[in-house]
């Protein structure tokens, strides 16, 4: 496996958001991740790069893909991985995030992976511990490793991002995935369209350097990539949708709407999917168009790269 150029180092101690990274940082992570793709397909998937290192996964929100991906990534690199069960922890007894941070810090971990329902929680944690902190999603703010794995998936299929036209569709307002992707795709030279009903479109979204659309067909016109988003029902403080059926009619990805994109357009979704609401089932499973399973696969490689780089 190719070695990382030791002359290039990550410029940050923590991975808290895409906006904190430089182009060199992003390229370092993506290039390192490419090295792990073939390893993850081999018979012997385990190496000892992080032998003797301790990784703590601290997930305050339910997660299947991200938590299992980080856990698998750490174990494949040889780290000692501990995933905290929040349901049975002192946090459920009223312990604050800062007290939790001080407790964990006393255990001398090398890296903490945190997902939290409050925006900025990962930043707060990073100020209270001595080790590296990786943000696995904080409120509506950012989900940097999801954006990085999405970028790797596109590069793996298209060999580039610069010059591509990419549509991000759905619940933009509540989506940390959308924000991290907008930041990253703009940095890498893509043209980004965001498509959403007006009540699911953030105020001042234009400041992020995107094209905004309320009509799905217009937003998908001539796009190379169509990135669907999950409806973040748990973050909606009031009713944003008249009905799931109406949402699907106007904003669900169907063959008719997809026909406005390029003929070879790729379909993405961070998961979990609400089939028949956000996306047509046949499109989600179309092996010629959908790269949703590939996103999951490459997510492990990206998280291995992040753990390796930020643990060093």
In short:
With 312 residues, the protein is of the alpha/beta class. It has helices at 23-41, 65-76, 97-105, 121-126, 144-158, 176-187, 216-220, 244-251, 255-258, 281-284, 292-311, and strands at 54-59, 80-83, 111-116, 132-138, 165-169, 191-195, 211-213, 225-228, 266-268. β5, α6 (176-187) and β6 form a beta-alpha-beta unit.
Question: Keywords for this structure?
Answer:
312 residues, alpha/beta, five-stranded parallel beta sheet, four-stranded parallel beta sheet, 37% helix, disordered N terminus
- Report the average pLDDT across residues: 92
Per the principal axes of the C-alpha atoms, what is the gross shape?
Answer: globular
Largest sheet: 5 strands, parallel
Number of helices: 11
List SSEs in N-to-C order: HEHEHEHEHEHEEHEHHEHH
Radius of gyration: 19 Å
Give the percentage of residues in beta strands.
5-15%
**Termini separation:** 18 Å
Question: Percentage of helical residues?
Answer: 25-40%
Low-confidence stretches: 1-6
DSSP strand tally = 9
**What is the SS-derived class?**
alpha/beta
Question: Widest sheet: strand order?
Answer: 7-6-5-8-9
């Amino acid at each position: 496996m190719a070695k990382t150029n030791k002359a290039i180092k990550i410029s940050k101690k923590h991975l808290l958001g895409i906006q904190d990274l430089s182009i060199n940082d992003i390229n370092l992570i993506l290039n390192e991740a490419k090295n792990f793709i073939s390893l993850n397909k081999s018979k012997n998937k385990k190496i000892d790069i992080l032998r003797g290192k301790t990784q703590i996964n601290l997930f305050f929100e339910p997660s299947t893909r991200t938590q299992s991906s980080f856990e698998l990534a750490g174990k494949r690199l040889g780290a000692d991985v501990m995933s905290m069960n929040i349901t049975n922890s002192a946090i459920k007894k009223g312990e604050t995030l800062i007290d939790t941070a001080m407790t964990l810090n006393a255990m001398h971990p090398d890296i903490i992976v945190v997902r939290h329902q409050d925006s900025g929680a990962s930043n707060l944690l990073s100020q209270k511990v001595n080790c590296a902190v990786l943000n696995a999603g904080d409120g509506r703010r950012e989900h940097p490793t999801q954006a990085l794995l999405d970028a790797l998936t596109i590069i793996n299929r298209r060999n580039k991002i610069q010059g591509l036209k990419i549509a991000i569709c759905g619940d933009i307002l509540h989506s940390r995935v959308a924000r991290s992707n907008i930041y990253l795709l703009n940095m890498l030279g893509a043209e980004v369209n965001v498509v959403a009903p007006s009540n699911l479109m953030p105020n001042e979204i234009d400041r992020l350097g995107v094209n905004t659309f309320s009509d799905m067909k217009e937003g998908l016109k001539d796009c190379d990539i169509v990135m669907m988003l999950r409806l973040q029902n748990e973050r909606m403080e009031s009713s944003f949708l008249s009905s799931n059926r109406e949402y699907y009619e106007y904003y669900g990805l169907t063959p008719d709407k997809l026909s406005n994109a390029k003929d070879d357009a790729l379909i993405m979704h961070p998961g979990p999917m609400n089939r028949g609401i956000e996306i047509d089932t046949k499109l989600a499973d179309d092996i010629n168009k959908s790269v949703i399973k590939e996103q999951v696969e490459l997510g492990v490689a990206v998280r291995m790269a992040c753990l390796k780089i930020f643990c060093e």
